[in-house]
From TrEMBL:
Domain HTH araC/xylS-type: 182-279
Keyword Transmembrane helix tagged: no
Native species: Nonomuraea montanisoli
GO molecular function list: DNA-binding transcription factor activity; sequence-specific DNA binding
Protein name per the record: AraC family transcriptional regulator
Annotated keywords: DNA-binding, Transcription, Transcription regulation
Xref: InterPro entries: AraC-bd (IPR003313), AraC_XylS_family_regulators (IPR050204), Homeodomain-like_sf (IPR009057), HTH-like (IPR037923), HTH_AraC (IPR018060)
Pfam families referenced in this protein's UniProt entry, alphabetically: AraC_binding, HTH_18
Amino acid sequence: MTGEGRPAREWTSYWRSAELPLEAMYASFLRHRYHRHSHETYSFGVTEHGAQTFTCRGAGHTSAAGMVMAFNPDEVHDGHAAHELGFTYRIVHIGRELLADVLADRAGHAVGLPLFAAPVLDSPVLATRLRRLHTALSRGAAPLERDEALSSAVAALAGLAARTPAAPPAAVRTPALTRLAARARELIHDRYADPISADDLATWTGGSRYAVYRAFRTAYGLAPSEYQRQVRLRAARRLLALGHPAARVAGEVGFTDQAHLTRWFGRSYGVTPTQYRLARAG
């Protein structure tokens, strides 16, 4: 950091638990801009310096120092520095099955998954507990210490979340549009590595190209092409976590080459595929 609190350069550090669906990143950005993307996990970020602005659920939000960003799984968002001073933040990704398990353990019975209605939370307690969990991951803490930090963070999260699913947008409540979007999504998941055209989606769903595009974007917050790229990126993450080299992964999941994968991986996750592959707790 400079004397004015401005990051001197951009940097990222990434950690991944070998046993649990639990990942963490610590990063400082000046000019980096996250492309619209989402995560399979719950994602909680603590802004440490500066401020980050982002669009989520159709509105703009800003997380200043000390605030917590809370993203539900599959929630589309972007992000960049709110001003020229940049921002530094740490983020923890918690798999939904892991979160459900910790919540059930606390309650003594199965409970519904939480839903965070606001993407920015002003909770010093939650920020402190997320920092503790992040530190446990980054320093390779013993399993018991890590699990205690996780349980403590989830306890704070549970008090700030609802368990009532949000009502879908009015346009998606139309059964025909819901089916159209779901059918298109099914094809993309089945053939994500293939070059799918708008005609392919129209033929598969039985709708027009325009109807499919409109229904899909309303249902999932992304155009079909953006969604396919996201599915490819998630597949790449899984293969990279298994230790597969980035060059091979790029071709297997449908990217033109390693450079193509690297460009979009960085825009979505803030790290390179190789950084992610080599990430380990501690």
